[in-house]
């Protein structure tokens, strides 16, 4: 059965699109028109604008396009959403917003101590991966998926903790907590290890574990998160098998595998970025030291 039966609003989330467009317009007003109101501000760089716009486009793709609707029908698409939202959109968003905007936000008296605590590398790692794993415990997952309020709050909360987790790796603040090259490598490896148990639970389960993908009643209630109730009441639906020929068990296993694959690709790219950045900085420091030594040993012909 085609998913078009759920209607335009469920497929394309026009209100969410309007919100992202408004946020993008606000971004350019802050970083260009109102830039002089920020202490230490710098002209907006092209790569920053590109990263921010990309983060908004990808965010809409996974949370506003038909992928979001498919994420409530098939577990595979749900895991694609999770992986891209927390492992791709979060770092793009962090790098897209200039450091002087982050500084203005972070330096607020109420925010600063909280932010400094939650961006400590060990705490950030444990909390994000812990919350992600707890979310995918069957009893927690099904309970949250059947409540609009809880699902919204948990999604936003987990995204905030994803920002905390990525902060030590990708922030470009001139001052503040940063990891050096070797510590960044260890941080990335630790992140991959901590996310593995949640994926393993899903991949190696001997039976379908999520009622919201295997039980018709629970699935229909969970569909209310993205489809207007009036639309659902006008349809006769027996379960997700109407829209997919893939068995629930295989769908569940594929979702776990895809999550792990995307994680490995993202962290692999991050490792490459960290390595080449490390080499570049090391080369620059070596050149500076060499130049300083040559200047010190240069003979003085004025004597």
Automatic annotation (TrEMBL):
The keyword Calcium does not apply. It comes from Bacillus badius. The keyword Transmembrane applies. It is a multi-pass membrane protein. It is found in: Cell membrane. NCBIfam families: caa3_CtaG (TIGR02737). It comes from the Bacteria. This is CtaG protein. The chain crosses the membrane at residues 12-30, 50-71, 83-102, 122-141, 148-167, 187-211, 257-279. Keywords: Cell membrane, Membrane, Transmembrane, Transmembrane helix. Signal peptide: none annotated. Its main location: membrane. Pfam families: Caa3_CtaG. The lineage of its organism: Bacteria, Bacillati, Bacillota, Bacilli, Bacillales.
